[in-house]
TrEMBL record:
<comment type="similarity">
    <text>Belongs to the ABC transporter superfamily.</text>
</comment>
<dbReference type="InterPro" id="IPR003593">
    <property type="entry name" value="AAA+_ATPase"/>
</dbReference>
<dbReference type="GO" id="GO:0005886">
    <property type="term" value="C:plasma membrane"/>
</dbReference>
<keyword id="KW-0547">Nucleotide-binding</keyword>
<dbReference type="GO" id="GO:0022857">
    <property type="term" value="F:transmembrane transporter activity"/>
</dbReference>
<dbReference type="InterPro" id="IPR017871">
    <property type="entry name" value="ABC_transporter-like_CS"/>
</dbReference>
<dbReference type="InterPro" id="IPR015854">
    <property type="entry name" value="ABC_transpr_LolD-like"/>
</dbReference>
<feature type="domain" description="ABC transporter">
    <location>
        <begin position="6"/>
        <end position="226"/>
    </location>
</feature>
<dbReference type="GO" id="GO:0005524">
    <property type="term" value="F:ATP binding"/>
</dbReference>
<protein>
    <recommendedName>
        <fullName>Cell division ATP-binding protein FtsE</fullName>
    </recommendedName>
</protein>
<dbReference type="GO" id="GO:0016887">
    <property type="term" value="F:ATP hydrolysis activity"/>
</dbReference>
<dbReference type="InterPro" id="IPR003439">
    <property type="entry name" value="ABC_transporter-like_ATP-bd"/>
</dbReference>
<dbReference type="Pfam" id="PF00005">
    <property type="entry name" value="ABC_tran"/>
</dbReference>
<keyword id="KW-0067">ATP-binding</keyword>
<dbReference type="InterPro" id="IPR027417">
    <property type="entry name" value="P-loop_NTPase"/>
</dbReference>
<comment type="function">
    <text>Part of the ABC transporter FtsEX involved in cellular division. Important for assembly or stability of the septal ring.</text>
</comment>
Amino acid sequence: MPEIIVQLEDVAVFQTENLILNHINLEVKKGDFVYIIGKTGSGKSSFMKTLYGDLPLKQGKGSVVDFNLATLQEKNIPFLRRKLGIVFQDFKLLPDRNINNNLRFVLKATGWTDHEKMNTKIEEVLEKVGMKTKGFKFPHELSGGEQQRVAIARALLNDPELILADEPTGNLDPQTSVEVMKVLQEINQSGRTIIMATHDYALILKYPHKTLKCDGSKIFEVIQKAM
């Protein structure tokens, strides 16, 4: 039986006091790739924020990589996030340092101390996303697609059990979106679990996977033809 990475039972998602999504039941197993789709404002990002502890779980039962979201204390959120890789729409790279040092900063922040091991890890993740030769460059010297590849490499640094990608192609042109998607496909095929929020239907049709739609405060599975 594949390991269950995410399990939600009758979960409600709130932004402060506002109910965004209700009655969510979901099981994501190790190695799954799941899309979360829906219009802007339908709750995709709020759903993702609940999974990585940015929004507290106030109603229902939820576990993500063996962390109980209902009882998750603020001091334990960093430990949850070390088991996750999070990729944002706007890359969030530090502009004042090169790519290698962007990644080194994350490793140091998560407890790495051995310089040799850090260098090896940085090289390994950059190679996975086709950016091994670009480590000396600064973010502003890279295209949007290259910056997103680096953001994906950063998400891989601590060997996450789950990657949460929130509109990772939202700022990219169609061709670059496909290139970034290919990287995510390869990572998924190597056994990693990915949940990706997107509004890019072309990608969903090109790379079909289980698809959940946020609509009318509900999340439900959609069959590809019905989209």
